[in-house]
Design goal:
The complex is a heterodimer of chains A (631) and B (99).
Chain A: E1 5-6, H1 14-30, H2 39-62, E2 71-81, E3 84-92, H3 94-117, H4 124-143, H5 147-165, H6 172-203, H7 208-213, H8 220-237, H9 245-249, H10 255-264, H11 269-276, H12 278-283, H13 285-308, H14 312-332, H15 338-365, H16 383-397, H17 403-418, H18 420-445, H19 462-485, H20 488-496, H21 507-531, H22 543-549, H23 554-599, H24 607-630
Chain B: H1 3-23, H2 27-52, H3 56-86
Helix pairs in contact in B: 1-2, 2-3
The chains are: A mainly alpha (631), B mainly alpha (99).
């Protein structure tokens, strides 16, 4: 464990990284209509300022020796009850640093892109406010030095995600998708909150430093429980099996949101959580195995769904699920995988953001139509979008020297270090990736035009294409830069640990096999969708295609297992409330009413009958007195 | 003189008054019956005061008379008002204050 260094110099401004976008969000969301004209530019400015600050901090960290790169800044004691203490404190280390750079730089590019994409939306001020709020919450999540503060950021990004998925809430499908994402995320959040409670009970603290220092004191059973609960949290946030159903619907949000939150940053928070908690998973083998299994299942689910969807954004969302599956899978492999999980996360964050923004640019030119069956032959009309999309395409399927090749290849290699079976599975999934991405570009950019009437495809304005170009450059060179120049393994090693195990065959063999499988997948995709004409009406398809179009029955399973039982319980409780509790109360009221109706007849209004009752009363009293006297 | 005769007379007068209140309809007669009951009570007070040789009962009798006089003033005024509006002194007819 490395020493915690006090925050000095540029690091005394760690809080400002979060405060800038937070201030932007507050000004934009509470400033009202006055900020309409300059608000979006302020939103871009705050995130860009954070990005500049992040780069300065990276330079500051590079100046220091590796063991002094963990900086801690405590602002104040946040919660202090009995033995429990949680500080408002930030920890900037090599892991947080790469996340800060990913969030702020990709975030700033997407903010700039949104200036063009949302130019005609009447609520764009609110949009930029929510985006700023998201960036602030996400930075809090990765900079926190204890799990409770992570939880605050975790909920913050969940809230921002909910608000942005439902940004066009007038559309019922968007409102439903937002609610769905929020509710499924709550299931994962229960896992995180239970894990935090268990950590406090076991270790007496929730700060990273204390927990990781004392993992050896806890029993393996406890650590496994914490690990599985953290996995539940990660599955919710990162759309992993079995909580994957929300991500595809989340594509109802504006495309920049899909790029920033549902591809590049928020959905990778689960990977961050697992890699951050590496001390726990290293000591809990079964929890780590569960992580591998969840990752592996999701790699295939996402890839199969991505292969069948005709909606370009949903196809990309399936691909995101699959790629995050790779990261979770790598994180479950232990010290041989943590570094590559983060490496793939960074390269994926850049090339998937580029792909989503490219898809947004295509939609922008096609009157917001998302159906790839109505695209085709766009390569000549959207040259910049096409070229940048191709860079992302080559990166995601893993063609050297594009960035995805380096990171995915390292994960596949790490899988073979552990077990040949899971290694073969990851190669197979890489082949499916080649298939569905080729299908996507073939349907979108090649073939014959299948446009709807009245659509005139055109290239997007420069404010949208410049971020695309920057992200495309990142997709091309970032993998090499991080691996050879940035030396990502030794950079992350102090935080995550790093180990390498020998594989039975030379590394070049695995690279070769992976490339051959990917190219086979791509060629099948090209023959099916590039050479043959694409029908406008989707063909019936095999049973697998039909299942994948329905998200592999994820919604149906949730419906049977959760929704219908809850509805039945709710209906029963409502009936019990109506008939049982209300019936009892109303019954008493009815009896009192009946009695009162009978008794009020005695109020006849006749003075003499009142007098008679008085006389009768007096007689009774006198008789009683006499009886008492006699005894 | 036997005090029980006075008590008996008082009881008889009270009973006549009580029955009068219960059975008669004319408000004036009912009113007179009430006065009879009050005076029956007065007679008992005075009798017991004589028997026990202190003045408390006599004093109470005076108070009862004063209250009765005041009550007569208000009661008669009410009866006259009711008679003016309804052309009747029956106490059964103004039975509007009921369920």
């Amino acid at each position: 464990m490395t020493e915690l260094m006090p925050a000095e110099g540029v690091f005394s401004l760690i809080w400002l990284l979060i405060a800038l976008p937070l201030a932007g969000a507050i000004v934009l969301l509470f400033g009202g209509r006055r900020t309409n004209s300059w608000g979006p530019y302020l939103g871009v400015l705050t995130v860009s300022a954070s990005a500049v600050l992040g780069v300065l901090m990276l330079l500051g960290l590079l100046d220091r020796p590796a063991e002094e790169r963990t900086v801690e800044q405590t602002l104040f004691t946040w919660v202090f009850v009995g033995d429990f203490q949680a500080d408002m404190a930030f920890q900037l280390d090599q892991l947080s640093m790469v996340f800060v750079l990913l969030i702020t730089i990709v975030g700033a590019l997407i903010h700039v892109y949104s200036l063009g994409y949302m130019a005609h939306d009447p609520d764009r001020r609110k949009f930029f406010g929510y985006l700023n709020l998201f960036v602030a919450a996400m930075l809090l999540l990765v900079l926190a030095n204890n799990y409770l503060l992570v939880y605050v950021g975790w909920e913050g990004v969940g809230l921002a995600s909910f608000l942005l998925i439902g940004f066009w809430q007038a559309k019922p499908s968007a409102a439903a998708a937002a609610k769905k994402a929020f509710i499924i995320n709550r299931v994962g959040d229960v896992g995180l909150s239970l894990a935090i409670m268990l950590m406090f009970v076991t270790f007496g603290s929730v700060s990273f430093d204390d927990v990781f220092r004392s993992t050896s004191e806890a029993s393996e059973g406890t650590l496994t429980a914490i690990g599985l609960l953290l996995l539940l949290a990660a599955a919710g946030k990162s759309a992993q099996f079995p909580l994957q159903a929300w991500l595809l619907d989340a594509m109802e949000g504006p495309t920049p949101v899909s790029a920033l939150i549902h591809a590049a940053t928020m959905v990778t928070a689960g990977v961050y959580l697992i890699v951050r908690s590496n001390a726990i998973y290293n000591a809990a083998v079964w929890a780590a195995t569960a992580v591998v299994i969840v990752g592996l299942i999701t790699i295939f689910m996402g890839a199969i769904i991505g292969s069948a969807k005709d909606d370009i954004k949903k196809s990309l969302a399936g691909s995101t699920m699959s790629q995050i599956g790779y990261m979770i899978f790598a994180a479950g492999l232990g010290p041989i995988g943590y570094v590559f999980a983060i490496f793939h996360l960074l390269t994926h964050g850049v090339f998937k953001a580029g792909l989503f923004l490219g898809a947004g640019s295509v939609m922008h030119g096609m009157n917001d139509n998302v159906n790839m069956r109505r695209y085709g032959a766009l390569k000549g009309l959207m040259v910049i979008t096409f070229i940048t999309f191709m860079a992302g395409y080559l990166a995601i399927i893993g063609i050297p020297p594009f960035s995805g090749f380096w990171s995915k290849d390292e994960i596949i290699h790490a899988a073979f270090e552990r077990n040949a079976f899971i290694g073969i599975a990851t190669i197979l999934a890489a082949g499916i990736t080649g298939f569905y991405m080729t299908r996507m570009i073939a349907m979108t950019f090649f073939g014959k035009p299948r446009w709807e009437e009245g659509v005139h495809p055109h290239e997007s304005p420069a404010v949208m294409t410049i971020p695309l170009i920057i992200l495309a450059l990142g997709s091309t060179f970032m993998g090499m830069a991080l691996l050879f120049w940035g030396n990502i393994e030794s950079w992350l090693e102090p935080v995550t640990g790093f180990a390498s195990e020998p594989t039975p065959l030379p590394t070049m063999f695995y690279i070769g096999v992976t490339l051959v499988v990917v190219i086979i997948g791509a060629v099948i995709g090209w023959i099916t969708y590039g050479v043959k004409p694409v029908p406008i009406d989707p063909p019936h398809g095999s049973w697998l295609t039909r299942a994948a179009r329905k998200d592999l029955y994820g919604d149906a399973v949730n419906d049977v297992l959760v929704v219908q039982p809850s509805l039945a319980t709710a209906r029963y409780l409502s009936w019990f409330d109506d008939k049982g509790i209300d019936g009892f109360v109303n019954g008493i009221a009815r009896w009192v009413g009946l009695l009162a109706n009978t008794l009020r007849r005695t109020q006849s209004g006749l003075v003499r009958s009142y007098a008679l009752s008085m006389v009768g009363g007096v007689f009774v009293v006198v008789l009683a007195l006499l009886l008492v006297r006699m005894n | 003189m036997n005090p029980s005769n006075y008590i008996l007379l008082s009881a008889v007068l009270f009973s006549i008054g009580a029955i009068g209140v219960l059975v008669r309809r004319n408000a004036i007669i009912v009113f007179m019956s009430v006065e009879l009951m009050l005076n029956a009570a007065n007679l008992s007070f005075v009798t017991f005061a004589r028997m026990n040789g202190n003045l408390d009962g006599q004093v109470v009798a005076f108070f009862v008379m004063v209250v009765a006089a005041a009550e007569v003033v208000i009661g008669l005024a009410i009866i006259v008002t009711i008679f003016r509006t309804r052309r009747s002194a029956s106490i059964d007819e103004p039975s509007l204050l009921k369920y």
